[in-house]
Predict the 3D structure of the following.
Amino acid sequence: MYETAVIRLPSNGKLGVPEEVTIRNLTGADEKIIYSGLNESSMDKLIKNCIVDPTDISVSEMCEQDKFYILFQVRILTFGSAYRFETQCQECGAKLEVSIDLDSLPVQYAPDNFDDMLNITLPARKDEIRIKILNSKDIIEVNRLLAKIKKVNDQGTKMILQMASLIDRVNDKEMKSLIERQKYVESLSSRDIAFIWRKVGALPLGLIQKALADCPVCGKTSEVSVVMNAEFFRPTFVDEEIDD
């Protein structure tokens, strides 16, 4: 039997997906996906497997914030909220062993006026643009184009294409192709580009994947990131004995 839980998604029903979904715990088949390597396609498959209801949800159209939150909650449902990991002190570089309660990480849910936040006016060009929240389809399209033009390791081109993916409309005109949006971004001033990144970064949406840890060597407090990788899905057993 599966263990299940109903969770409220950060997008809060504002981005075309339900406000709540029912998830289940991980299985051996799911772990096979995790340890084969986490990328956009495998993460979508894992999430789809773990959503019990609704069964017809399109994971590739879910925003990244919802997807990460689902995986966090699947991990908690399967192994509990206690999590230990290693990182480095930002001050002295010493090894830090961090123990956190994943349930304590704050979540930002889309507010009632969230749709209004997606419409912005560029400070230099004065264009009225509508930004969107990226989903798997957008990211896969960027990676496909980078491979096609042989710019996979070109961070500048990747940054431009990622910003192009964020732009939905310009002066109420739909920007249909990624190439069209790329040309538009390349024509913007650096001031407008910085403004867009700042607005996107300030959107109140998703899990805050940060925690504080005190260094035992220098005594400084560092802000550490909770990284989602294969290690994240390994259990942290506290004061438990595992029978052979």
Summary: The two ends are 22 Å apart (CA to CA). The chain has eight helices and 13 strands. The chain has a mean pLDDT of 91. The longest strand covers residues 82-88.
